[in-house]
Design goal:
By secondary structure, the protein is an alpha+beta fold. The protein has one domain: Bira Bifunctional Protein, Domain 2 (BirA Bifunctional Protein, domain 2, 2-Layer Sandwich). The chain has 5 helices and 11 strands. The protein has a 7-stranded mixed sheet with strand order 1-2-3-7-6-5-4. Helix 1 links the parallel strand 1 and strand 2. Helix 3 packs across helix 4 and helix 3 crosses helix 5.
């Protein structure tokens, strides 16, 4: 399958990016492109994709698109990968394949104000196809898609499947609210019940609240870390 063969669901369309898919999508969004644009990169060593949203809710609520897109990718890999391949999600956007880090999600928006209605929001992901270093034993906590029994997955097909599954979850979220998404995400989340550190805070990762904020319990209290903490600076 070549780049020209990529097909997307209704209201979504693709553009090949020349640098980073996330940056490409953010620049197009800032220039006023419609929601539904998927920027992508199909390189020999990695695959990238980023989706443009036009939120109709404040940023604090629109950030739910980050875990939603993560669930979409997990579902896509679940449909394409061999059944023994396990895919999980870190709260902060990390992707794990068979327990090891294998790429991550990132998010950008037109504003950093949690109460503001963003003009746009972009969620993107990068996944390595082959290991960065030949000596994989030096980095046992990191892996690549093709190293985990997924060499038969065509990267264009993965992007297409991600788009379809993500659109399905967007529709379900619009119809039902976040409850179904939260239940699905909890079953895929990595590290719940385990020690975690976010910035200066350390404790036990208890899960998330209704807005997918991280609940981190230390000896004295439970801290709530909002998803907006994961916003990155615009390019």
């Amino acid at each position: 399958m070549s780049e020209a063969d990529l097909t997307f669901p209704p209201l979504m369309w693709g553009e090949a990016a020349t640098d980073a898919a996330l940056g490409h999508a953010a620049r197009r969004a800032a220039l006023g492109c419609d929601a539904g644009l998927i920027a992508y990169i199909l390189a020999a060593d990695r695959v990238e994709a980023a989706l443009v949203f036009a939120p109709e809710v404040p940023l604090r609520d629109a950030m739910i698109m980050l875990p939603l897109c993560g669930v979409g990718l997990q579902n896509a890999l679940g449909a394409l990968a061999p059944p023994e391949v396990a895919v999980h999600l870190d709260w902060d956007g990390g992707i794990r394949v068979n327990g090891a880090a294998c790429g991550r999600f990132r998010v950008l928006a037109s504003t950093e104000d949690p109460e503001a209605l963003p003009d746009w929001l972009v969620v993107g992901w990068t996944m390595p196809l082959i290991p960065e270093h030949e000596d994989t034993g030096a980095t046992p906590d990191q892996t690549a898609l093709f190293s985990e029994g997924c060499a038969d997955i065509a990267p264009p097909a993965l992007i297409e499947a991600w788009a379809r599954h993500t659109l399905g979850w967007i529709t379900r979220w619009e119809d039902e609210g976040p409850r179904g998404l939260a239940a699905e995400w909890r079953g895929l989340a990595h590290g719940i019940g385990e020690p975690a550190t976010r910035g200066d805070l350390s404790g036990t990762f208890l899960g998330v609240d209704e807005a997918f904020g991280m609940l981190l319990r230390d000896d004295e209290t439970t801290h709530l870390i909002p998803l907006t903490d994961l916003l990155e600076d615009r390019p």
